[in-house]
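FW: tagging you since you asked about this chain on Friday. Here's the raw sequence from the shared folder, copied in full. Didn't touch anything.
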Amino acid sequence: FNERLDFDGVVLTKLDGDTRGGAALSIKAVVNKPIKFVGTGEKMDALDVFHPNRMADRILGMGDVVSLVERAQQQFDEEEAKKLQSKIRKNTFDYNDFLSQIRQVTKMGDMKDLVGMIPGMKKAMKGVEVDNDAFKPIEAMIQSMTPAERENPGLMSSSRKKRIASGSGTSVEEVNKLIKQFEQTRKMMQMMGDKRKMMNMMNQMRKAGLK
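HL: got it, structure written out here
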């Protein structure tokens, strides 16, 4: 094999699906070449440097928080992050911020791959279809809000919800679900602003990944 094909390393692909990358264990033994990169999507830039320890965690179902943080750092603007941190401290996180966060997350790559990087999340979402287009209805609902509604989440009323549902091609039930998701996100953001609470949350995530 090596006499006919002279190459330096291997690119392990299709890690954006349900696979944990178990093939990584046998590649070195079979072709005697190191894994250089892993493919995490269909686009040309969906390549990450291969890290054996991170792949081991992924195979064991423990996630890959380091890679997740690295991707986030590539997409999130430092100045915007400071503004967001200030809004979280002042408890003024609104739907404009929520929409901005969603758009930045979608730029990070395939949703299945991102879910697999969070400790315990792969197991928790087993059997649940993770759709890359799942955020589109959310974007449509937020864009159907008035500027005042986006800036003041407490303004929501039954008539406003009906108008938003009609304008976004969704239902009032979906609008209610969005509001609930927004409130949960806002609470999590506040928790992340508290270092002690953040450490407790990370410890819980690690424990979930070990189960």
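FW: Strands lie at 10-12, 35-39, 47-49.
HL: agreed, and The chain has twelve helices and three strands.
FW: great, closing this out.
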